[in-house]
Amino acid sequence: MTDLAKDSTKDVAQLHSQLYPAIAERCLRGGVYVVALEIRGSRERRIVEIFVDKPDGISLDECGELSNSLGEMLEEMNAFPAAYRLEVSSPGVERPLQYIWQYARNIGRLLVAELADGKSLKGRISAVEGEMITLESPAKHGSKSGKQPKISNALPKNVSSEAPVEQIFPVILPQSAIKQAVIELEF
Fold this sequence. Notes:
The chain is of the alpha+beta class. It is about 30% helix and about 30% strand. A hairpin with a 2-residue loop joins β5 (about 120-130) and β6. About 20% of the residues are buried. Mean pLDDT is about 85; it is low at about 1-5 and about 140-160.
C-alpha cells in the first residue's frame, strides 16, 4: 500500500468517526436509524453514502427529506472542503442486519449468520422476542429444490453432525451472539 493510499484510508476512517455520531443523532431525531455510513473517493471528490431504515420501513420521500437535512448539516460542519456527492437510501436486503426490529421485520425469511464465536448458521427466522431470535430449519415451509439443507458448523455442542437437520432446530440466539447476519434471497 502506498503512503498516499494509507493517508486516504486514515482520512476516511477519521472522517467516518467524526461524522457518524452527528449523522446518527440527526437521523434519530426523525425516528430513523443509520444502518451504514460509507465514505469513498478521493479528497477532491468524496462520495458519502448513508443507508437508513426504521422499523416500519423508509420511503423514497423520507430519504429525500433526510438527504436535504443531512446535506445542510454537512455544509454547516464544513465536513468536505472539496466537492462531494451525498446519497441517502434504504439499505436493501443485501446489507447486514443491525437492529433487533430488522430481524422481526424479516420473520419467515432465510437468515445467514456469522456468529461471534466464528461459526456460521443458516435458518429461517420464526420468532423474535426481546433480544432473542428463533431460527427454524431452512427447509421449513417447503423447500423448492427438494434438497436437504446443508448443516452448518454452528451445531450446538450436544448435537452430532450426523443428526438430521430437524433435530438441531429450533435454535434460539441472543442478538449479541450474532456478529453479522444477512437475509438470503429465495427464488
